[in-house]
Write a structure and sequence with these properties.
alpha/beta, globular, single chain, 8 helices, 2 domains, 6-stranded mixed β-sheet, 270 residues, Rossmann fold, two-stranded antiparallel ribbon
Length: 270
């Protein structure tokens, strides 16, 4: 392959950075890959940085020094995130989503890659100050959301299960009370997935009373980790008194009226 033109390098550089959010690449890595001098690469990085920030598509951060380099930090402007949440609220409020028993259907949204990628960016924008080492969730419906949040932070995803799997080795098990149904359930976590002293961000799709979330907090504590944040896509307005506090939600679900075929849900804007 011959030496690339500047426009071709900028396109390739942008693709590599965006595909690896939060990953710090050394300048020497790109100099060797594109066969250019550091001064030339610096101009290319500046072009990518200016273009992405101009349109609010994320930030490119450069770090000087021997251990420095360049990395892409995903995220949009606050007003763009708010507009996205408002549009998603309209979609969630569709009467077609009402299920028997006053439940709300959200599985399709959690299976839309572009939507969940954007949600991961919104979670990052609101929670980056927590600087977690791991994202933790519980099987199964919230896995896709938690995975994309972990990708935005560029940290591992840890998943608690309701059953033990021999392929995951020794586990830590707890019993917890489901806040909404008031029944006893079991939650298990492989011992090797969380390091003692690590900081954990809990992510799930829907939080009602908070029993499952509190179970994850207790489970993380059993292996010596600290929960620094709890975040949910949707929280229900009732019950008003949750079993956890200090959490973040992005939508508040007030009511699902089967007879009137009406969903009352509002985005929680930043």
């Amino acid at each position: 392959m011959g030496r690339a033109k500047r426009m071709e390098r900028v396109v390739a550089l942008t693709k590599i950075l965006v595909d690896h959010p939060q990953h710090l690449f050394s300048f020497s890595y790109f100099c060797k890959k594109f066969e250019v001098a550091k001064s030339t690469l610096s101009e290319d990085v500046l072009a990518v940085k200016t273009g992405l920030e101009l349109f609010g598509l994320g930030k490119v951060e450069t770090i000087s020094g021997a251990a420095g380099g360049v990395r892409f930090i995903p995220g949009r402007r606050v007003e763009d995130d708010n507009k996205f949440l408002q549009e998603l609220a309209v979609k969630l409020a569709s009467p077609d989503r009402i299920l028997a028993g006053g439940m709300l259907y959200v599985t399709d949204i959690l299976c839309e890659p572009q939507t969940v990628v954007r949600l991961g960016e919104v979670f990052l924008n609101r929670l980056k100050h927590l600087a977690p080492d791991y994202v933790m969730t519980v099987e199964t419906r919230g896995i896709s959301l938690a995975f994309l949040v972990a990708r935005a932070f560029n940290i591992p995803l840890v998943m608690a299960r309701h059953d033990n799997y021999i392929t995951e080795g020794p586990t830590v098990n707890i019993n917890y009370v489901s806040g909404s149904r008031k029944n006893i359930r079991t939650m298990a976590l492989p011992k090797r997935v969380l390091q003692p002293g690590s900081k954990v961000l809990i992510v799930d799709d829907v939080m009602k009373a908070g029993g499952t979330a509190r179970g994850m907090v207790e489970l993380a504590g059993e292996v010596g980790a600290t929960v620094v944040g709890k975040a949910f896509l949707i929280e229900t307005a009732t019950p008003e008194n949750k079993l956890i506090d200090d959490y973040t939600a992005f939508f508040r679900l007030y009511d699902v009226d089967e007879e009137a075929r009406k969903v009352t849900i509002e985005p929680i804007l930043g």
